[in-house]
Amino acid sequence: MLASRIALVVAGGIGLFASVPASAQFFLKPARLESGRVTGEEPGMTGPALPGATATELRAALAWNLRAALNVAALQCQFEPTLLSVDNYNSLIKDHAIELRDSYATLEKYFARTYKNKKQGQLELDKYGTRIYSGFSTVQGQLSFCQTAAAIGHDAVFVKPGKFGDMAQDRMKELRASLGPWGEQYRPSGYIVTGMYGVKFPPFGNDKCWKKGSYQAKKCGPLLLD
Description:
2% strand; elongated; mainly alpha
């Protein structure tokens, strides 16, 4: 009986998602994330705040944040190969190697002048890098983060050398917003997409939801998005 119930839901799920465009991956209608160009002075955009940083240093921090975020995506989003998170990350690291190197050097100088000696500055820079990575680790927002990071990673491959920092300024707000617990926006009050591929299923073990192998929507709510 349980097997037949699961088969019914799986069959319905296949029909539901068969017409979804390949670019959608996870959602019929993704969340509209807040976007807009930032300078790095906005709270949270560079991860930990950088008091007294110049515009050049903030731009470098945003570039380094974006690199870290796409690195996290390359590690966390491999469950969906069509996102090409790893391939795009490897490409942008090669294409923007000079700018990324210069961005890190700019951050080194910031921490060196901000703290009392070079050793302390390096220690704080290492802490900063660790906090950046942890700041892009997400559970509830994994799907929206992976989808957004994949789009940005794809675009980064086509950005001209020397313009990666500009892209970070343009896309960081969107990327930060994707870390929230976003679900399906087509029917936000219904079942939302969770986990890696599935939907939130009804309680299979609850007999009141089933009658002669048929799901009782009136008793237990809608089975799938329609």
